[in-house]
Amino acid sequence: MKKLIALMLALSMLLCLAACGEKAEEPAGQDVPASTVAPAGQTEAPAAQTEAPAEQTAAPAAAPTPVPTPTPAPTPSQEQYQHYFDDVIKQYVTALSEGADRQVYYDRGLNSLVGAVNDASKVGYLFRDVNGDNIPELLIGCLGEKQIYALYALEGTSPKLVIDAGERNSFYLEPDNAIVNRGSSSAFLSAVMIYTLKGTALSLEVGLVSDFSVNEKEPWYRTYDEDWSVANDEKISNDFAETAVKAYEDNYVSLDYKAFCRFEG
Q1: Is 154 helix (H, G, I), strand (E, B) or coil?
Q2: Taking the model in full, what pTM does it have?
Q3: Over the stretch 91-104, which tens digit does the pLDDT of each residue have?
């Protein structure tokens, strides 16, 4: 009887242990309820849904403020400069009205050829931009002639005498505003110099010097200096020199001078 009871007790304990073992072990897939874990594609909204595109989230850039274009200052006309020469013109008008001799013109810093003419109706002035800076120069000469007696250029607002011709030292203008200077120091030595006006100074481009004391038959030389010495100059033929000189003469510009007697300043 005791053995039967002991066997029944042992069987009963075995059944209890089996039941406890079944409750202690659960499927691995049931650790977290299926309803609390969403698929990866459903846990976060796509970037296109959670964040607005850059062009939608960022405020549009403000349009750049236009920079006003400065209005260029108007270019002064040549007429606006002419009054700076009034004092020079008045000096010539005064000397002519006085009938001053040539020495007076020298003493006053004026061109003496005007005094040699000594007639306010026959000598005069004109304005022309010779150096290309849109500021006129003052030219003085004899009406009906191509020669320039004097040329004044503005240095700031002050007239400067640049050309002061004499009886053996004459100046003429070419169509391209080159200035031809013809001069001689004796019966044996003469020159034709070609200048351009740069600012308020003459700049030599080329010269032709004739020196009969060196070579009576072939006296011509080409030079790039103003010393009139042919020692270091280039020898050229008579034909070349004479053709060049003739071409310059044929192109001298006729200058329409206004008589000093008509000046109203």
Answers
A1: strand
A2: 0.71
A3: 999 999 999 999 99
